[in-house]
Write a structure and sequence with these properties.
By secondary structure, this protein is α/β, with parallel strands linked by helices. The protein folds into 2 domains: about 190 residues, Rossmann fold (3-Layer(aba) Sandwich); about 160 residues, Rossmann fold (3-Layer(aba) Sandwich), CATH 3.40.50. The protein contains 17 helices and 12 strands. The strands form 2 sheets. The protein has a 6-stranded parallel β-sheet, with helices on both faces. Helix 1 packs across helix 17 and helix 5 crosses helix 7. The longest helix has 17 residues. The chain is globular. The mean pLDDT is about 90.
Length: about 350
């Protein structure tokens, strides 16, 4: 059997999910997997420009993105925006499906589900279709009728899908697919406070976080800052924070899992993948100045389930961190709620769910 996974370079999360799924298939089944970005196939240069534009907007104009997200978030599933967003790349996807002839196609980016729906309506022979939602919130752009299976991060998103009246064969709450290392490298003794700037340095106000952490860091904990691919950020921080260790470059999954597995606390943005990895590692997550859009709702998910913390100002960050460091019952409560929410072996659960549908013929 052959699977085609459709991903996107807008942010790092979709590619991370696609790679985790491909790995799960390759390690636990005989299914052949191809991962493709339709927008990259259309025009690599334009796709790279758009991906950089997305990162720049999230870093420098987050309110504009948040306004657009909120204006389109809770519409009916059959709306003009869903259709318009799904039109670019439609012909390229049709060509790809004709070339590959996969037994199943997996969308880990919302507009691909819309493309598949349009192709089905036009009578194109679309194979079994699966949608994997990659945040703890579901923008209506994800919701399209007549997919075979939706794989969801949480019960809350499942309710949202039913509320919108989405017609699909099957729904499974599996968690967001991540690599298995985050299940494997948890340590009982935690000796780090981990500050992550994200792969592209998108975590807001990293220097403010460093100032607060350095001022409150107890002697029994080390402070580590992951600068990601943002070399300029690492250069700015070097020499300013003598008590914090700086790590530059994009880490492997295993390296990140080892850092997270020994961290008493993670302070970072609230991307769907980072949030899932922290839950899997049983690491409390403090989100500082959550970015508008899906990251705001990811942070809200942690807050509502008492499995994470949020701070919006430097003063608030200091208060929250001080309470976390001094209140053992708070730390234990967070860890207990994290254990309740975490979904072990999420990538393998999705891969097995897809494999089962294909082998049973629906």
């Amino acid at each position: 059997m052959k699977i085609l996974i459709l991903t996107s370079s807008f942010g790092g999360g979709h590619n991370s999910v696609a790679k985790a799924l491909r790995r799960a298939f390759e390690e636990h089944s005989s299914v052949k997997v191809r991962v493709e970005d339709v927008y990259h196939l259309m025009n690599p240069k334009v796709n790279r420009f758009n991906a950089r534009l997305y990162v720049s907007m999230m870093k420098y104009l987050p309110k504009a993105y948040g306004l657009f997200y909120d204006l389109t978030y809770d519409r009916e599933k059959d709306n003009i925006f869903n259709t318009l967003f799904s039109l670019p790349g439609l012909r390229k996807l049709e060509e790809l499906l004709e070339e590959e002839k996969p037994d199943g196609v997996v969308a880990v980016y919302p507009t691909y589900a819309g493309m598949l729906k349009i192709l089905k309506r036009r009578g194109f022979p679309v194979p079994k279709s699966f949608v994997v939602i990659t945040d703890f919130v579901a923008h209506v752009q994800w919701f399209h009728d007549h997919m075979d299976v939706y794989f969801l991060p949480s019960k809350e998103v499942e309710f949202h899908l039913y509320r919108k009246g989405v017609l699909c064969q099957k729904v499974e709450v599996t968690g967001i697919p991540i690599n298995p290392e985050f299940d494997l490298h948890r340590r009982e003794e935690r000796d780090l406070i981990l500050i992550s700037a994200g792969m592209f340095g998108m975590t807001p106000a990293v220097e403010e976080i460093c100032e607060v952490v350095q001022s409150l860091l107890p002697k029994n904990l080390r402070g580590v800052v992951l600068c990601g691919a943002d070399s300029r950020l690492c250069h700015r921080l070097r020499g300013k924070f003598s008590r914090l260790e700086l790590v530059q470059g994009v880490l492997s999954h295993e390296e990140m899992a080892k850092f997270m597995g020994r961290s008493a606390l993670l302070i970072s943005k609230a991307g769907g993948i980072t949030t899932s990895e922290a839950l899997s590692a049983e690491t409390p997550h403090l989100v500082y100045k959550p970015l508008p859009g899906q990251e705001y709702y990811n942070a809200l998910y942690l807050l509502k389930n008492e499995a994470g913390m949020v701070a919006h100002t430097k003063e608030e960050l200091a208060r929250v961190l001080r309470v976390f460091l001094t209140k053992e019952e708070l730390r234990e409560g967070l860890r207990e709620n994290i254990r309740r929410l975490r979904k072990p072996h999420s990538a393998l659960s999705v891969a097995r769910g897809i494999d089962d549908v294909l082998r049973r013929g629906g």
